[in-house]
Amino acid sequence: MDVVERVWRVLQAHPAVQDITLVGSRARGSATRFSDWDFRVDTDDFEQLASVLPELVADLDPLASLWDPITGGDACYMLILEGPTKVDLIFDHPRANDPPWTVRADTVAAVDDHFWDWTLWLCAKQAAGKEDLVTGQPRKMFQHLLQPMGATKVPASLQEAVGVYERLRAGCEAHFGVVVSRRLGEAVAPVVASV
Which of 67, 95, 123 is the last residue in one of the domains? Predict the structure, then answer.
């Protein structure tokens, strides 16, 4: 079963879902092998659907799932499936950007999801030759995610960001007495190496 069928299957049964449409580069036929699968989800009850969305998408067995903290516009629920395959569920519902992460024992795993989702998105943009879009991202990643973890300078490349992040994550795990699964990072790291 392909990504479109799988996403349709888990969402279409919910009564608040009116339509699901593939959009973006996958719909246009201009995707690279790392490109996101972007879906516009139309709903007549966003709040109700949003409250059960994590349960609905659990059937997809995601490696990561979270609301995009810095969407800057429409609400977007982000997933990474095996592959790794990035899936974005986009809603016609405004969502303000979150502040930079506050790193605590109960947020370290979500920070990990966000870092690897962001990294996979950047790999897709690099593979598509969108360097103008990628240029400002290391600073943004530093401000929103790496600096709150203790980083002191903006990484010079995505590969450097991964190394810095992995070191900081280990420090956070030791400090808070938590362990973050390496399954997601192990899926995304080969993509970083390939671009």
Answer: 95
